[in-house]
Amino acid sequence: MRLLLVEDEPRLAARLREQLMALGYAVDHAADGVDAEFMGTNVEYDLIVLDLGLPLRPGLEVLAHWRAAGLRTPVLILTARDGWQERVAGLKAGADDYLGKPFHVEELAARLQAILRRAQGDGAPQIASGDVALDEDRQAVNVAGRAPQALTGTEFRLLRCFLLHPGKVLSKSFLTEHVYDQDFDRDSNLIEVYVRRLREKIGEDRIATRRGQGYVFLARDPS
Ligand code: CA
Is the pTM of this model over 0.85? Predict the structure, then answer.
């Protein structure tokens, strides 16, 4: 899950980035409105967390530009605690949710999960495809008929990617983009290693290899 964090306050940004990465997101960071608009437009993110009070270009303007350009990525805005006008303006400009500062990271995490579920198109409490379900709180996977398996951070991000795109061929470069953050030394060969480990945990036949193209997660109906 690739997330863009837009926050100009350096200490808050560093802390949020660390906490979001611990929750399994690959996090890119922008510290002003111009960088934010550029990155949001040119990189394919799954989620954007956008502070509204930004240098160079206000967050509301950035959001309005994204939406005017047809960007549909879910956006959660960070607003001043008592900034109800800001929240209304943000929602009207196309935000999917908001959070007033200061906030607990647990609430941010819960709201991001809820946004992702809505983006996935159902109200199910977990990200799931067929009989494979992710347990986000425990960072584990449940497969019908198998004991729950704990996942490492990278395995978790990789499997979430597969579950959000069942039946679709995902290239190694797509998976690398969505599993690692911008500072990571991206070695797409590592994806093979992680796919092998996921297969051990969810079943060999769940992730098929398409030579020269990538991998495809094969959903199986719960029965
Ligand atoms: Ca700010």
Answer: no
Rounded distance from Cα 26 to ligand 1 centre (Å): 22
- Tens digit of pLDDT for each residue in 138-147? 889 999 888 8
In the chain, what is the straight-line distance between the N-terminal and C-terminal CA atoms, in Å? Answer: 28
**Distance, CA 116 to ligand 1 centroid (Å)?**
24
Q: From ligand 1's centre to the CA of 107, what distance in Å?
A: 19
Q: Using CA atoms, how far apart are residues 150 and 132, in angstroms rounded to an integer?
A: 13
Q: How confident is the model at residue 170 (pLDDT cuts 50, 70, 90)?
A: very high
In residues, how long is the chain? Answer: 223
* CA 207 to each of CA 110, 120, 163, 195, 222: distance values in angstroms, whole numbers, following the listed order: 28, 20, 11, 8, 17
Number of alpha carbons in the 13 Å side-chain half-sphere of residue 150: 2
Q: Ligand 1 centroid to 3 CA: how many Å?
A: 18
Beta bridge partners of 6: 30, 50
The pLDDT value given to residue 75: 96
Q: Ligand 1 mean position to 80 CA, how many Å?
A: 9
pLDDT band at 182 (very low <50, low <70, confident <90, very high): low
122-129 long-range contacts, CB within 8 A, separation 24+: 127/160, 127/163, 127/164, 128/163, 129/162, 129/163, 129/164, 129/166, 129/217, 129/219
Q: Which helix (H) or strand (E) holds 53?
A: none
CA distance 11 to 7: 10
> Does residue 123 surpass a pLDDT of 60?
no
